[in-house]
Amino acid sequence: MDFRKLVPEDQALIDEYLKNFNGFSTDFSVATILLFEEFEDVEISVGEKAIFIKGNFSEDEVFYPPLCKPEDFKESMEKIFTYYKEKDKPYIVTGITDEYINLFFKQNNIKVDEHYYNDYSIIKNDEFYVLNDRDSAEYVYLPNDLINLGGNKYRKIREKVHAFYKEFHNRYEMIPYTENEKENFFNLIKIWNEEKNHSCVNEINLLKFIFENKEKLNIEAFLLKIDKQTAGLTIIQELPNHVGVVILEKSSSKYRNANCILNLFEANQLQNCKGISRQEDIGIEGLRQAKLSYKPFHMEKKHELVQFNSKEFFNLYQSIFGDSNELIDLIQNSETYKLRFSTFVMKNQKIISIGAVREKRLRIFNEIEEIPFVFGIATKPEERKKGYAGEVIEKIINKAYIFGYNLAMIAPQEEHLIKYYEKFGFVKFNYHKKVSIENLFKKNFNIQQGSINDSEEITKLFNNYTKNYKISLHRDVFFTTERLKEVFVDGGKLFILSNNDSNTNYGYILYEDGEIIEYINLLENEPNENINIIKNILINKGYEYILDCKFINTSATMDECNIEKDTFSLLRIINPMEFMKKYSKYIYFDDENFNKNVLVKDPITEDCFFNIKKNNKEIKFSMIHDNNASDIEISISNFLQIALNRFMKNNEEYPIKDKFFCCENW
């Protein structure tokens, strides 16, 4: 395949194939690709039977499905697979509609249950996985539904339309975009973004390019005027298969319900279409609810096909870490294991380096933060020190950025690995020190073996203990149950600690392979039991092997631990601005009034710029440079280190331990 840059003139080539396309996907609108896709360096290859489009996404080359007739789909997909094979890369094809994914299933003799389509789930085997991606599904509406707004289901929207008519009667009009309206159009783009504290430089540059080529792209643009002021704008397109698409729509917050009038106008302009796509919600909950409120008659589902030999992947994992087959099965079937983050490097079509993610939750003061917990970074011994592990780590960080996480976490157990991960922007945040195991056994203690039925009690003990820390892992009963299953599957044990005087539980121990891998002790400051009594109780119950551990790790301040010998957990910030917006209220500030432009340098994702203003207790953020502010440039790791230090100093409003808590490696 010979690729070249995608240009506006390619819409005409694509349209020839779209004429016979049955679905509602608008992925082949060139204007949409240029304006919104996360892809970089989008390229096109025009073959005899198919058009191929690809771009770069998180350092991977990603293909759209081939644009071709159904009878040519198998041959076209084989060409994509060959392209990747020649580059020694795993194939990734995104945006495959139901029609064509069904063809793929038939061609590969894959039987699919109906729940796959209904539940947005995953199908996987030893060669690939197919993800039915809810966030990428397009919302498709019948034009007449949006024009008539009939029935009770549209009552609230009708009320908004009538309210607009009443307030702005004879004061509004819709006019086509012309060069005379260019300044007004882009001024509204700027105002809309300023209201949301977004930078719009890139968007404006792309829109200018699109308008320079709007005839080639076959798009139309209109402005909503109220009292001759620009109150809203829209860009629409009708594709050759009679699918309408709303490419862009914005309205000023000054004019209530202006968005409803834009929706009504778009439906009238596209009333001859078989359906109008308002595109996907990309997982944004507010956007999802807004699109659902207009009652789509169809969801155009999209599927992602990714080459992934899970057997080969976990064989390498198992050869390095030694986990049992039973434990690996539990990991793969756990809801915390995020298949999309499973990353690998191939050489001669064989996997040589891997990394994976499990989603966990951190509690940061009063907030719960979902984070990708990186684990299983491993490279075949003969391929080490060639940069493959670094490639895997960078891809995982990029994926975390693209999927909207604020933080990532990893927990290496050796000092040389800690130093290695620090090169990728990770920062030590959880300090440990070793203390005697006797500290677990308090005066008049009792110990008994627990089971999976104790998940709720273990969860309570865990969260009661960790609430005393500014940052800690957070668990619910579901997560604890999964954790216990993975401990038990390889012969690990749960022991519950209680006090005979009060008959209440004060802690627990997770024991596996001769080590205490986790414990909670709510009475850590209470007197210990006599060592001889401890030994006698454990011997009588048959648990004397616990004492072979001798030492346990406990959370500590940085000053209390041995930097060279003790273990740490590491955090990496992924999205500095979103992190600051969420957690600035917990950060200690020396100055009650300041105004700073901050540029956070990130060599892996992209640099992040924002302005932060503080006036007494009010904190505001913007992506717009303030000429009156002082400028700061800082590395991604130093930025997080400063934030963590400022968390530690916040003792006035949150007078809790100056420690962070994490008790597991993955």
Automatic annotation (TrEMBL):
InterPro entries the UniProt entry points to: Acyl_CoA_acyltransferase (IPR016181), GNAT_dom (IPR000182), LPG_synthase_C (IPR024320), UCP018688 (IPR016732)
Which intervals hold domain N-acetyltransferase?
A: 314-446
Q: Which GO terms describe its molecular function?
A: acyltransferase activity, transferring groups other than amino-acyl groups
Q: Which residues form the signal peptide?
A: none
Q: Which Gene3D superfamilies match?
A: 3.40.630.30
Pfam families cross-referenced by the UniProt entry: Acetyltransf_9, LPG_synthase_C
Q: Which residues does UniProt call coiled coil?
A: none
- The protein's name is N-acetyltransferase domain-containing protein
